[in-house]
Amino acid sequence: MFKTIYLLFFLSFGMAFSQISKDALLGRWIATDKSVAVNVYKEGNSYKAKVIWFDERLGSGTPMYTRKDTHNPDENLRTRKIIGMDILNNLNYNPENQRWENGKIYDASSGRTWDTFAEIKKNGLLYVRGFWKFTWIGKSLYFTKF
C-alpha cells in the first residue's frame, strides 16, 4: 500500500514539473483575436511559421488570396502573396526556460521585422512576443491550437 502511494506521488510530482516538448510548437495556431492563423513547422533545428489565413476585413480589405506584401522594404518582395508567406524564422527551443527564442518575426502590415520569442503558457495558449531591442518595446499575441 505504501509503495503504491509513494509511486503515485512521484508520478504526479513528475507530471507537474515535466518539460514542454520542443515540438509542442508545431501545428496550426489561430490568434485569440481571430486576426491571423499560422502553420508552425520545423526546418532543421529551427522553427518557422507560414500565414495560412487572416481576417480580410483588416488592412486594405483586398481579398485574402490576392493580397500582396506591399509594405516590404525589399521592392523585389512586394509582389509576393501574404498567404503562404513565411513570417517567423530561426526560432530555437531553449530547454532551460522552456521557450523558443532568438527568432525573427515579420509584420506584413508594416513591413517590419522584429526579434521574437514564444512560449506555451500553462493554459495551453501560445504567447508570441515581437520586440525591438528590448522585450518591453513591442507587441504580443496569443494563439490557440486548432
Task: Name the descriptors.
single chain, globular, about 10% helix, disordered N terminus, about 150 residues, mainly beta
Explain the overall architecture.
10% of the residues lie in helices and 47% in strands. With 146 residues, it is mainly β. An 8-stranded antiparallel β-barrel has the order 1-2-3-4-5-6-7-8. The longest helix has 15 residues, at 2-16. It is globular and about 40 Å long. Residues 1-17 have low confidence and may be disordered.
Structural class per helix/strand content? mainly beta
User: Total number of helical segments?
Assistant: 1
Secondary structure: number of strands: 8
Tell me the major beta sheet: 8 strands, antiparallel, barrel
Helix content: 10-25%
Radius of gyration, in angstroms, nearest whole number: 19 Å
Distance between the termini: 42 Å
Strand content: over 45%
Task: Give a concise summary.
The chain is mainly beta and 146 residues long. The chain has one helix spanning 2-16, and strands at residues 27-31, 36-43, 46-54, 86-94, 99-107, 112-120, 126-132, 134-145.
